[in-house]
Amino acid sequence: MLSRLTRPWALAVCALPVVGLIAVAGLAPLPFSVAQPGMTANVLGEDRGTPVITISGAPTRETSGQLRMTTIEATGPDTRVRLGDVLDGWWRTDQAVMPRDAVYPSGDTVKEIEQHNEAQMRASQDAATEAALAHLGLDGKGIEVDLELADVGGPSAGLLFSLGIIDKLEGDGSGGDLTGGRTVAGTGTIAADGTVGAVGGVALKTQAARRDGATVFLVPSAECADAKSELPAGLRLIPVTNLKGAVQSLTALERGTGAVPSC
């Protein structure tokens, strides 16, 4: 049949299935999530009127500056992301298209995912407390740390929680603040031994940090390249691999002495 058609008609007929596939792809939901810079929270301050970090069993100190944990905001696990959303996200620097399984790796329903994220947050808070007290050489049996941060799940605030506990208990060890009065932001998981782990979405988190006034951003060393890809002007990156290194870097920055690593 095609051999009897003129070339323009033949091309048109051949193109019909392709057009149909494109139309279907444009309407069909795709296994992606679209993410953008999310909220940040100062772990040295309050969240909705409640202190983020409350410590009992040991004297605490007044702090200046801020330690801001960062987040990304992604389309929900039950949101239907279509081809147009994906194409738009690819071209924008304030959005990222991520595989849905990378954003929501566990569970099929919203409730299951929320429960998973809450469990990760609780485990992260326990590890952050253990790592901070071990860094300071304090007995965790006599000191109680309560961490409260509403509507945030997952483990990526672990590093900032540990630094906040250290700043409230000891600061830089010489009467000063770890922040040096600055607004310091960052991200990274924390293990009980102080190891800092990668989290994902750091390019968006640097944008959230700068938007909310940060001039310094602590990033897991393995994610330096990602953090630099869309780095906002005026934001300094400091790579970290463990809690001890993060404290040393902030102390050196605060005192103006010693080397401060950079990405």
Overview of the molecule:
The protein is of the alpha/beta class and 263 residues long. It has a domain at 38-71 and 123-255: Ribosomal Protein S5, domain 2 (2-Layer Sandwich). Helix content is 39%, strand content 21%. It has eight helices and twelve strands. It has helices at residues 7-27, 83-91, 100-103, 110-136, 158-169, 202-211, 224-229, 243-255, and strands at 32-42, 46-47, 50-51, 53-56, 66-74, 96-99, 144-147, 183-186, 189-190, 196-197, 216-220, 236-240. Strands 6-1-5-8-11-12 form a six-stranded mixed β-sheet. Strand 11, helix 7 and strand 12 (236-240) form a beta-alpha-beta unit. The longest helix is centred in the middle third of the chain and has 27 residues, at 110-136. The protein is globular. The relative contact order is 0.15.
Strand content is 15-25%
The overall strand count is: 12
CATH topology of the domain at 38-71 and 123-255: Ribosomal Protein S5, domain 2
- Mean pLDDT equals 85
Helix/strand order: HEEEEEHEHHEHEEEHEHEH
Summarize this structure briefly.
By secondary structure, the protein is α/β, with parallel strands linked by helices.
List keywords for this structure.
single chain; 263 residues; Ribosomal Protein S5, domain 2; two-stranded antiparallel ribbon; S16 family serine protease; EC 3.4.21.-; Ribsml_uS5_D2-typ_fold_subgr
